[in-house]
Design a protein that fits this description.
This protein has 412 residues and is an alpha/beta fold. It folds into 3 domains: 16-222, NADH-ubiquinone oxidoreductase 51kDa subunit (Rossmann fold), CATH 3.40.50; 233-316, Roll (Ubiquitin-like (UB roll)); 321-411, NADH-ubiquinone oxidoreductase 51kDa subunit, iron-sulphur binding domain (de novo design (two linked rop proteins), Up-down Bundle). The protein is built from 17 helices and 9 strands. The longest helix is centred in the first third of the chain and has 24 residues, at 86-109.
């Protein structure tokens, strides 16, 4: 495991379970009221690390309002986004910290049943995860009257079946209920009627790990990192044509250029960066000439870029951008659940147009329609999959149209 700072990943090189102890953060939370826990997380400025970047303290507060005899708390470990693997490393090296974050969140919102929704490809982790949960039960961190707080709370593991769409919250819930993984209409929202129509809090793996670290070290320590509007640290999945790919924990504010050159040790074979894709395969493309941008929410907002899950895919100048976009749309065509027409048909039509463009035989209507189809998908698709599927294409059309529309001119 590689990192620049270690606020969240401080336990990654420790043999935690050889001397299993209740963490100071969890002990601290067990002696706090629900409002005090939520206030601590709110003051940290932590935002959801799954991609939506919704304020975590606000989400906890909204969830805490809904009372029920059964209340679910779900950890989304589906992580089906190509280019993203930081949640896998969190579960591999510090699952205890993730589970403790879930328990802290359960204390804050009075949840009764926790579920780790694990990506099918991560099934090799299940035995060790079950071992950790068993030891937590033996320490009364899970089960009846946990830590003498009066709360009954336990965690179980649910393995998904490999569907990308189940990374979306309501599709994930449908999957747990034994239904096809397809998104639900909202409202009602999951915080009120989620799993089995009971109040449900759903967060990402890294979000729970960060909650645990904040309770352990205090929000004051967390906000020493990053910037005023993007406090704290972020785990990134650095991959592609770099010499040192891997999972890194970085403070917000480091530029993309610094990430590639100093953390990733530069581009392989000393080639130039053609573009960087941010946030996984559903993210936008940033050209190599624009890499001085700081890795913060506010700086990305200025150029209409979403940080997503924190993936950074570096692509060198040997790659044909149309070939890359073709691979992106082929992935989304395969993973679309087919529920809504814009996504189901849009991905198929984009692939058809891209095939003609790669051959240099596109028509004038293709040049007009490719952007029209992509924008229709972005604004009319039912869920985030269809809405973000054309993101790479739209950013390429915006930032380097000469790379997209050059084939027909050469062919002529």
């Amino acid at each position: 495991m590689k990192r620049i700072v270690s606020f969240i990943t401080e336990n990654f090189e420790k043999e935690v379970l050889e001397s299993f102890e209740i963490s100071s953060g969890l002990l601290r939370a067990s002696n706090m009221t629900e409002d005090e826990i939520i206030e601590e997380i709110s003051l940290s400025g932590l935002k959801g690390r799954g991609g939506a970047a919704y304020p975590t303290g606000k989400k906890l507060a909204q969830s805490a309002v809904f009372k029920s005899d059964v209340k679910y708390l779900i950890c989304n470990a589906d992580e089906g986004e190509p280019g993203t693997f930081k949640d896998r490393d969190l579960l591999k090296y510090d699952a205890l910290g993730v589970f403790e974050g879930m328990v802290i969140s359960a204390l804050a919102v009075r949840a009764t049943d926790g579920i780790l929704y694990l990506r099918e490809e991560y099934s090799f982790l299940i035995d060790e995860l079950e071992n950790i949960l068993s030891q937590m039960r033996s320490k009364k961190i899970l089960g009846h009257n946990i830590l003498d707080t009066g709360l009954n709370f336990d965690i179980s593991i649910f393995s998904g079946a490999g569907a990308y769409i189940c990374g979306e919250g309501t599709s994930l819930i449908e999957s747990i209920e034994g239904k096809p993984g397809r998104p639900r209409n909202k409202p009602p929202y999951t915080k009120e009627q989620g799993l089995f129509m009971k109040p449900t809090l759903l967060n990402n793996v890294e979000t729970y790990a960060a909650i645990n670290a904040i309770m352990k070290n205090g929000y004051e320590e967390f906000i020493k990192y990053g910037t005023e509007k993007s406090p704290g640290t972020k785990l990134i999945s650095l991959c592609g044509n770099v010499n040192s790919p891997g999972t890194y924990e970085i403070p917000f504010g480091v530029t993309l250029k610094e990430i590639i050159e100093k953390i990733g040790n530069g581009v392989k074979n000393e080639r130039n960066v053609k573009f960087v894709q941010i946030g996984g395969i559903s993210g936008p493309l940033i050209l190599g000439k624009n890499l001085d941008i700081p890795f913060t929410y506010e700086d990305f907002d200025k150029i209409d870029v979403s940080m997503g899950s924190g993936a950074i895919l570096v692509v060198d100048d040997q790659t044909d951008i149309l070939d890359f976009l073709d691979a992106v749309q082929a992935f989304f065509k395969h993973e679309s659940c087919g529920k809504c027409t814009p996504c189901r048909e849009g991905n198929r039509q984009l692939l058809n147009v891209l095939a003609r463009m790669r051959k240099g035989i596109e028509t004038e209507s293709d040049i007009v329609n490719i952007e029209r189809i992509a924008k229709t998908m972005k604004y009319a698709s039912f869920c985030g999959l269809g809405q973000t599927a054309p993101t790479a294409l739209l950013s390429a059309i915006k930032n380097c149209p000469e790379e997209i529309f050059r084939r027909g001119e050469q062919h002529a």
